[in-house]
Design a protein that fits this description.
Rossmann fold; UDP-galactose 4-epimerase, domain 1; seven-stranded parallel β-sheet; 12 helices; NADP; carbohydrate metabolism; Epimerase_deHydtase
């Protein structure tokens, strides 16, 4: 199977690519606006090709008749899209629509499987105590609005038979390695990652009862790989949006997991200070979801958060 991944230089793109490149039957095209690397340590690096390009200008050149599936991961994240409206619209909508049009016009007789990374940021308050796909999205950020627009495109392009698409509303992914991102939720990885690496981290919200819906990288990648070959009729052609499984975790529970793996010395590296410009975004996201639809479609549940912290420690910290 030949698979294209946009936003392939990012953490999820790299993690997914490494897993796919463990199978000799997969051939990958890794695309990003910066030069995307072939993941270090992958089993079949020769099966990957990398392309540095701007999708708004060149989407038609990367969609070739032999492409079987596309993971759509490119974009500007929440706080970045809020700070720069024009950039958010260009990266999150214009580049995505250019890609969708290139797929539509590719002439491939068998519809290409398109797997789009959406977000729980499409929801805004008020929401019920437990959110399902039946809850009407009312985003309170430009990022959430941009994701919702692209979800509508996924539904319509699939209904019309232009491709075989699904839009997945990701929980916040934690723990991510690397550096902080422009996401409002970046601290939900930073408050684990930085202390385990001996670095301080400021939590931008002074409320340890604040809860957020998150998912481990391990579970997300397993579910994304499952989605590559799951039956198309798992959802109606005009209702292709799915909330991927996650778990609700409070700041206090995350601190407890950090202490369980890193000890009190790791917790001592945390500080807490309200950041008003992030507070509004963070409190607009619902903390609890019912993932029955995803489970009925065959997706797997997430693991306890302390296990995720242990995964991060063993894979990125432990010598």
């Amino acid at each position: 199977m030949k698979v294209l991944i946009t936003g392939a230089a990012g953490f999820i793109g790299q993690l997914l690519a490494k897993e796919l490149l463990a199978d000799p039957e997969h051939e990958l095209v890794l695309v990003d606006i910066v030069e995307p690397p072939v993941p270090a340590g992958c089993k079949y690096p020769g099966n990957a090709k990398t392309i540095k390009t701007d999708l708004t200008k060149s989407a038609s050149t990367i969609i070739t008749p032999d492409i079987d599936a596309v993971y759509v991961f490119h974009g500007i994240m929440s706080a970045g899209a809020e700070a720069n409206f024009e950039l958010g619209m260009s990266a999150n909508i214009d580049a995505t629509r250019a890609l969708f049009e290139a797929i539509r016009l590719s002439g491939k007789p068998t519809p290409i499987r398109v797997l789009y990374a959406s977000s729980q940021a499409v929801y805004g308050m008020p929401t019920p105590d437990i959110v399902t796909e039946a809850v009407v999205p009312t985003p309170e950020s430009s990022y959430g609005a941009q994701k919702l627009i692209c979800e509508a495109l996924i539904n319509d392009y699939t209904r019309r038979g232009f491709f075989d698409g699904f839009a997945f509303r990701f929980p916040t992914i934690s723990v991510r390695p690397g550096k902080p991102t422009a996401a409002a939720s970046s601290f939900l990885s930073g408050m684990i990652r930085e202390p385990l690496n001996g670095l301080p981290c400021e939590i931008p919200i002074e409320n340890r009862k604040f809860a957020h819906w998150i998912c481990s990288p391990r579970t997300l990648v397993a579910n994304l790989i499952y989605a590559l070959t799951m039956p198309s009729d798992a959802a109606p052609k005009h209702i292709r949006v799915v909330n991927l499984p996650g778990i609700g975790v409070t700041v206090q529970e995350m601190i407890d997991a950090l202490e369980a793996i890193g000890g009190k010395e790791a917790v001592a590296l945390l500080s807490e200070k309200d950041v008003p410009e992030l507070r509004e975004i963070l409190y607009s996201w619902p903390p609890n979801f019912d993932n029955k639809r995803a489970y009925d479609m065959g997706f797997k549940p997430d693991q306890p958060f302390v296990d995720t912290v242990k995964d991060y420690y063993e894979n990125f910290v432990k010598k």
